[in-house]
Specification:
The protein has three helices and three strands, in the order ααβββα. It is an alpha+beta fold and 98 residues long. Strands 1-2-3 form a three-stranded antiparallel beta sheet, with helices on one face. It is globular and about 40 Å long. It starts with 8 loop residues before the first helix and ends in a 7-residue tail after the last helix.
Length: 98
């Protein structure tokens, strides 16, 4: 996704477990969307839930669940990236940074 950038982990973690309005978060960081997720393990199985939030509206515009094996996490990561990228490119083909 040309023009996309990722907020550093340290910066993102400063907002962890804090109640903050999505619009405020977007303005503070200069971003339009936020991706968040959760990982659950059950033995060798992994489930990853991912969502994309539009910070201007506060609404989730996409979410999905991915299941895989711990031994093939790179493949699972590729699946998540591909599906997210396809959604974002289709839904927001001319997206511009704030």
């Amino acid at each position: 996704m040309p023009g996309a950038f990722v907020i550093g982990r340290g910066t993102a973690f400063t907002y962890r477990n804090k109640q903050i309005e999505p619009r405020t978060l977007g303005k503070d960081l200069g971003i339009r969307w936020a991706v968040q997720g959760a990982v659950r393990r059950n033995g060798n199985q992994v489930r990853v839930n991912v969502s994309l939030t539009d910070l201007q509206t506060g609404r989730d515009v996409w979410s999905d669940c991915f299941d895989g094996d711990r031994a093939s996490l790179a493949t699972l990561q590729d699946q998540i990236t591909a599906r997210f990228g396809a959604f974002h490119a289709q839904k927001y083909p001319l997206a511009q940074p704030l």
